[in-house]
Amino acid sequence: MEYQQLKKINALLFFGFGVWALLYYGSGFLIPVTFGIFLAALVNPVHGFLMHKLHLGKIPSALLNTLLVFVVAGGVTYLFLYQLSLFASDLPELKEEFKGFIARLQDALSELIGVSQRDQQRFISERSDSLLSSLEEEVTLLLGNMLAVTLKFLLVLIYLFLFLLYQDRFKKMILRFTGKEQDEKALSLMDKGSGVIHAYLWGRLKVMAILAVLYLLAFWYFEVPYMVLLTVFGALVTIIPYIGPFISGLVPVCMYIIFGNSGSDILFFAGVVLVIQLIESYVLEPIIIGKEVSLSPLAVIVAILIGGSVWGMAGMILFVPFFAILKIAIDHSSKLRPLGLVLRNK
Q1: Which Gene Ontology cellular component annotation is one that this UniProt entry carries (predicted)?
Q2: What are the pLDDT digits (tens) for 205-220?
Q3: How far apart are CA 82 and CA 248, in angstroms?
Q4: Of 104, 203, 268, 282, which one's alpha carbon is 20 to 30 angstroms from that of 30?
Q5: Residue 293 and residue 289: Cα distance in Å, rounded?
Q6: Res 341: pLDDT
Q7: How far apart are CA 163 and CA 39, in angstroms?
Q8: pLDDT at residue 262 is higher than 80
Q9: The pTM of the whole model exceeds 0.90
Q10: Cα 61 vs. chain centroid, distance in angstroms?
Q11: How far apart are CA 73 and CA 208, in angstroms?
């Protein structure tokens, strides 16, 4: 009996290691394919409307949906890169602003802890110069890598078009693997999985759009430098739960501090950003994204950590809906259903 249990545990460990190795070493192929599948699920209702209501063929409908994704994603990307290029061109002037911030910080530390400005200058100048140089290098590297990113994006669009065009064939292929006695269960699982991906991504896009409007209004009122860049960045990065909202709030507050605003203004601005994040986390997400795709905080954190270790930034985005699909599959299995208690939010 113990031997059989040990054998099952070993088989499970080997299976888990095999899945991890497949995901890690096959990331160059699997990441664009997964983005293509998820985007196909996102625009699938539009695809169905064009085909069944407007009586367009599969190819024209798939082309229009692919073009729609290209225009929206390409427009946001162009806006972000344009604003980032403006920021990169202003980095020499920003160094002076940063040095002014360091000087004010030194004065405050001298009064607070009694450390001489000479000692502070020796400690801070080395690190501030290296920090600014690293920032300039990272921005330049990001702008220089846009050709590779553009090629990967075009590959994702090709996969999107093909998945929309041949989705019926993919369903038939899966049904042949499952067998006729499992057809109804397999179809239900595929429909629910596609629905969860659509609900999560579409809901996330709406939350990001509302968040962008709130951020833009707040940044405009407080006259935050590079408010368009910070707005686009802040909205995009929130696609990563927990970590994203923290970064999207921290960066503009740091920028506001560096540009020499008074302490009361900084506290007021930080409070407004905090309120916006609370609205996003406790009002927008539960109402717009809904309970259907909600995972427990533990499941979301595990998904982010595993996704980040396997696929990097792409994994941190994709593995959350992955786990939502996994929760549906577990709920359809009587043997694995107890695991759903860990993944489920309630």
Answers
A1: plasma membrane
A2: 999 999 999 999 999 9
A3: 19
A4: 203
A5: 7
A6: 73
A7: 9
A8: no
A9: no
A10: 27
A11: 13
